[in-house]
Amino acid sequence: MVFTRDIWITPFQLNRKLHIYMPENIQENERFPVLYMFDGHNLFYDNVATYGKSWGIKEYLDNNNGRVIVVGLECNHNGNERLNEFTPYDFYEEEWGYIEQRGQILIDWMVNELKPFIDSQYPTKPERDYTYIGGSSMGGTMSLYMAMHNSKTFSKAICVSPHIYPMYKKFREEFDCHIEPNTQIYISWGGNEYPTHQLFATVTDQNLQIIRALLKKTGVDVIPHVFKNDAHCEQSWQKELPIWMKECNIA
């Protein structure tokens, strides 16, 4: 089942909605891994998704007896605030202008307030081995950053179509970060996400540089997927569900 509840984001002094998936028919003393995800309104139902198409995660988990809790954090829908909250670095893009990072503030809140709250309210397995992070686009960017800097909390990161291009140099500067052993990172991108073949080639090269750097770290497993004909949208990301759910042993 999927339900929503409000939560207070203390550092922003804002109320926000959580979209939470719970397995059906929970047995006595049964406890579950938790997958935290960005853009929670886009995960489960088409009628509340921003562009009228969700990832279909509820349907997938129901059909595959997925025994995992999914906690989706809805984004800030005001102006560029989603971009500000979902980036770990300042960046500039012509379409959006200057984006000032508030992502580190949000990450600290997720680690220090959101996760303890979820663990106190629901039948979770709180250990890092059963705590995952995931998202698409800017949510994928945040998930990659959290895999690099918050691996003591999250053992798996699902980075679907991360928007890294405008901040790639800043990611490069942090390739020497420590990542806990037994960390798994899924990174994907699609050929039709970019307006030109040249930009697709540039992004592919950047992603491969990141993957190489991650694979040099002891005990870090990286699962890359390139989808030649897929676009930057929920319909494409729904097609990826079975891949990362199975490859990362989530459901």
Largest sheet: 8 strands, mixed
| Number of alpha- plus pi-helical segments | 7
Query: What is the percentage of strand-forming residues?
Result: 15-25%
| Strand order within the widest beta sheet | 1-2-4-3-7-8-9-10
Number of strands: 10
Give the name of the CATH architecture: 3-Layer(aba) Sandwich
CATH superfamily: Alpha/Beta hydrolase fold, catalytic domain
Fold-level CATH name: Rossmann fold
Helix content estimate: 25-40%
Provide the low-confidence segments as ranges: none
Rounded Rg = 17 Å
Helix-strand category: alpha/beta
- Number of separate structural domains: 1
Query: How far from one another are the termini?
Result: 16 Å
H/E element sequence: EEEHEHEEHEHEHEHEH
The top level CATH class name:
Alpha Beta
Q: Looking at the structure, what is the overall shape? A: globular
Give the mean pLDDT: 96
Walkthrough of the structure:
The protein is an alpha/beta fold and 251 residues long. The protein has one domain (2-247): Rossmann fold. It has seven helices and ten strands. It has helices spanning 57-63, 81-85, 103-121, 138-149, 168-172, 197-215, 234-247; strands at 2-9, 14-21, 34-38, 69-73, 91-93, 97-99, 131-136, 156-160, 183-190, 220-227. The strands form two sheets. It has an eight-stranded mixed sheet with strand order 1-2-4-3-7-8-9-10, with helices on both faces. A two-stranded antiparallel ribbon has the order 5-6. β3, α1 and β4 (69-73) form a beta-alpha-beta unit. The longest helix has 19 residues, at 103-121. The two termini are 16 Å apart.
